[in-house]
Design goal:
Blueprint: H1 5-18, E1 42-45, H2 52-60, E2 73-76, H3 84-88, H4 96-99, H5 117-129, H6 132-148, H7 154-160, H8 166-172, H9 175-181, H10 187-205, H11 212-221, H12 234-247, H13 249-255, H14 259-262, H15 269-287, E3 292-295, E4 298-301, H16 310-333
Parallel strand pairs: 1-2
Antiparallel strand pairs: 3-4
Helix pairs in contact: 8-9, 9-10, 10-16, 11-12, 11-16, 12-13, 12-15
């Protein structure tokens, strides 16, 4: 007869844990079923599962009755909670056609599910958000976030994300609208989003047959968080505008090579300034519903930026600008 050291160790640790001499035990694909340790009052999930059966087995490890045990704490680090309302439906005794309409299931006699009001509100919100396309975008975003170890930027989402980045804009109007929906913003960021949502949508959605609008915006952003949103003239933008388009061959070829533009390859401040005034500044002003204006030779944003919002709004605007420039040249190069 062969002696299994590993099995013996498992049995030993199991017995010690069962006797209450061990406070915590970690397992991988063990104790899913067939284990009865009624004293367990805390579960930690670090493994994702889409299986209702496996999930039910997991939480079952902590739902055994025991004297002095009033509840079981479940710590979910992996997001299994996101389908909690569906998983709760396993306990529902009503016909299937009514399950989707009720967050708290109707359980058998002598059983009770008592949910805090905040939990019920959370489950209702998750059920409301459960839309296949949005869920897919959210899952792909979270996978990338996990890979990077932080929240991805807009451009990183485009370059490394599994879903087409344009879908985030189509579904939520802006990338930051998605972050707000996904509860990925801090309380401070939520305030900033609420105050400047219209600007973020404008920067995200303003039409672009050429890159000129975003080059002007990028030039403004070069002035830093405290000054980027202040008025600017075509003459101030001209050197940056010309250098940006001439610096890379692909930019010059795609957006600066028509008959009128080729005359500007050799820098002429007056001519480049006139182009900027006529094209991006005047056109953006006429299509922005008052958010930006170009009058008396000055281009400006028609909203105030609070001092405490400068850093966040600057970062978000820059992310949109860099994303749109990249996508524009990427699309035109195909």
């Amino acid at each position: 007869m062969k002696f299994c050291v590993l099995c013996a160790l498992r049995k030993c640790h199991y017995q010690i844990f069962q006797a209450g001499e061990l406070d915590v035990i970690f397992t991988v694909d063990l104790f899913n079923e067939g284990v009865d340790i009624p004293t367990v009052d805390t579960l930690l999930f670090v493994r994702p599962t889409e299986s209702l059966t496996v999930f039910t087995q997991h939480i079952g490890r902590g739902l055994r009755l025991h004297p002095g045990k009033e509840h079981c704490v479940i710590i979910d680090l992996i997001g299994n909670y996101r389908n909690a309302d569906i998983k709760l439906s396993l306990f529902d005794t009503e016909p299937n056609d009514t399950k989707s309409k009720r967050i708290v299931p109707k359980v058998p006699d002598f059983c009770e599910i008592d949910l805090d009001l905040k939990v019920i509100n959370l489950l209702e919100e998750m059920a409301r958000k459960r839309q296949p396309r949005r869920e897919k975008l959210f899952e792909d975003f979270m996978k990338l976030k996990q890979e990077l170890g932080r929240r991805p930027t807009y451009l990183e989402l485009h370059l490394k994300g599994a879903s087409d980045s344009a879908q985030y804009r189509q579904e939520f109007k802006t990338f930051f609208g998605f972050l707000h929906w996904a509860n990925e913003l801090s309380d401070k960021e939520k305030e900033v989003f609420s105050r400047y949502e219209n600007w973020l949508i404008e920067a995200e959605k303003t039409s672009m047959s050429k890159s000129y609008k975003m080059i002007v915006l990028l030039c403004m952003l070069e002035r830093g968080p405290s000054n980027w949103y202040k008025p600017i003239s075509p003459v101030e933008v001209a050197p940056f505008f010309h250098h940006y388009l001439m610096e890379k061959e692909y930019r010059k070829r795609i957006d600066f090579s028509d008959k009128a533009s080729t005359r500007l390859w050799e820098y002429n401040e007056d001519a480049v300034s006139k182009l900027i005034a006529t094209m991006p500044m005047a056109k953006w002003s006429s299509s922005s519903k008052g958010l930006v204006s170009f009058e008396n030779g000055i281009f400006q944003l028609n909203f105030d930026v609070l001092k405490e919002d400068e850093e966040i709004l600057y970062d978000w605007t820059k992310q949109i600008c860099e994303y749109r420039l990249h996508v524009h040249f990427e699309r035109k190069a195909k």
